[in-house]
Design a protein that fits this description.
With about 350 residues, the protein is an alpha/beta fold. About 40% of the residues lie in helices and about 15% in strands. The protein folds into 2 domains: about 5-180 and about 310-340, 3-Layer(aba) Sandwich (Rossmann fold), CATH 3.40.50.2300; about 180-305, 3-Layer(aba) Sandwich (Rossmann fold), CATH 3.40.50.2300. The chain has 13 helices and 12 strands. The strands form 2 sheets. A 6-stranded parallel sheet has the order 2-1-3-4-5-11. Strand 1, helix 5 (about 85-100) and strand 2 (about 100-110) form a beta-alpha-beta unit. It is globular.
Length: about 350
């Protein structure tokens, strides 16, 4: 299988195929092209050039074994709904390709991130069905996103080489690469407090969510009251962020600042604020992820950047090391987040109106 054949199936040039496979940040003119290319790659079991050459060699000593990798996305049931994890997926796909491995499947199933769903459904049956799809061609599994502790035994029963990459730890039951969500939230809230804010809200998921715990912990540490009306328990979508603004504006005493657990929620809020044009309503917004869109909003979005490139690269590195038997004990790597100061947060008391435009 060659790049030309993939290009023909996907309806693009071979150069575009090469750029997509090797550069996770490459943007195709046709927004659906990336999806078609990776679909063809997975369906055809595309073997990168070096691996293809090795498979043809007769001398086993020179032959490099080709590994078959699967990815399980746990935050949603379909693609293109969580921007941060979509960007992380692109990085992992490219790393798999660069390491001359074959990506055969990308599964989406939010069951695996929910304790409640795991208690209601037969998790082992779901995992077994996934395994049966790839039983003859599976070397390792990369789990991207939050993972319920209830799903871990079933996954380990069928898949023997596993790495998890997320904001939440699996308590060292698996190899994992993390960027601690609790510490991310602490960093965000402390920045707002440094700007003089005391009435600070939270927008995002709350149930067993490390970022929500970090939010509560930081308020308590700084003797700041928790106000129930300032907490909006919503899933990370732009539409939910948009709707939250209307709720906040109806409060008699709204917060002066909001921490959004995800950038995409903040994007929705900024869009809503651009439409209200309500004078004397000033709201500082900080979020976390640092998706590509964050620096293109107006005002540009202050956020906590997660090291996506390193998370993806180390996840693949850990998995290959495990597959090749180079380590036996579970490994944990925690990467640091970074505050990116832009324009969406102002010092408390600065009531100078600025337009919100996307």
């Amino acid at each position: 299988m060659s790049l030309k054949e993939i290009a023909k199936i996907a309806g693009v040039s071979p150069a575009t195929v090469s750029r997509v496979l090797n550069n996770p940040d490459y943007h195709c003119t046709d927004p659906k092209a990336r999806e078609r290319i990776w679909k063809a790659v997975k369906e055809l079991d595309y073997v990168p050039n070096e691996a293809a050459r090795n498979l043809k060699k007769g001398d086993k000593k020179e032959q490099r074994k080709t590994h078959y990798i699967q990815i399980l996305m746990t935050r949603t049931d379909s693609g293109q709904t969580d921007v941060f994890f979509d960007e992380l997926l692109h990085i992992i796909e490219s790393e798999i390709h660069k390491n001359f491995c074959i990506l055969t499947h990308v599964w989406y199933d939010s069951l695996f991130s929910s304790d409640r769903k795991c208690k209601q459904e037969n998790v082992e049956l779901v995992v077994r069905k996934l395994f049966e799809e790839v039983e003859d061609k599976t070397s390792g599994l990369i789990i991207v996103g939050k993972l319920s502790y209830l799903a871990i035994p079933a996954i380990k029963k069928y898949f023997h080489n596993i790495v998890s990459v997320s904001r939440n730890s699996s308590a060292l039951e698996l190899d994992e690469v993390t960027c601690d969500g609790r510490k991310i939230a602490i960093q965000a809230i402390e920045h707002l407090i440094s700007l003089g804010h005391q009435d600070i809200g939270y927008v995002g998921e709350c149930n067993k969510e490390s970022r929500y715990q970090g939010y509560l912990e930081t308020l308590e540490k700084n003797n700041i009251d928790q106000v129930a009306e300032y907490i909006c328990n919503v899933k990370p979508t732009e539409a939910n962020g948009f709707q939250v603004v209307e709720q906040i504006m109806q409060l008699e005493y709204p917060p002066s600042a909001i921490y959004c657990a995800n950038d995409i929620l903040a994007v929705g809020m900024l869009k809503a604020l651009s439409k209200t044009r309500k004078r004397f309503f000033d709201l500082s917004i900080i979020s976390s992820d640092n998706i590509e869109l964050a620096e293109r909003t107006s005002p540009s979005l202050t956020t906590i950047a997660l090291p996506k490139e390193e998370m993806g690269r180390f996840a693949v590195m850990f998995l290959l090391d495990r597959i090749e038997g180079k380590h036996k004990l579970e490994m944990h790597l925690e990467l640091k987040s970074r505050l990116i100061i832009r324009e969406s947060c102002k010092r408390f008391g600065n009531n100078e109106w600025s337009d919100y435009v996307i």
